[in-house]
Amino acid sequence: MNYFKYYIDDILPSLDRFIKQKQLTDCLNCLELLGYSGDAAITLLAYLQQREVEA
User: Fold this and answer.
1) Ordered DSSP codes for 1-55
2) What pLDDT, in 10s, does the model give residues 21-46?
3) Mean pLDDT estimate for the chain
């Protein structure tokens, strides 16, 4: 079985792109790789989306 190590610098650009493209499932997958899950991931995603709207 192979295990992959993900680095935050690898994931954040994808997360930003997914938010801009409104690909919410992919955003949640990225957040899970960063250690967020459940309500914490959804809350953080909502915050990041709001930040994107304000920018």
Assistant:
1) -------HHHHHHHHHHHHHTT-HHHHHHHHHHTT--HHHHHHHHHHHHHHHHH-
2) 888 888 888 888 888 888 888 888 88
3) 77
CA distance 6 to 22: 22
Does 5 score more than 80 pLDDT? no
CA distance 1 to 17: 30
What is the length of the chain? 55
* Residue written as token pair 């801009």: 20
Cα 51 versus chain centre, distance: 13
Among 43, 37, 42, 45, residue whose Cα is nearest residue 15: 45
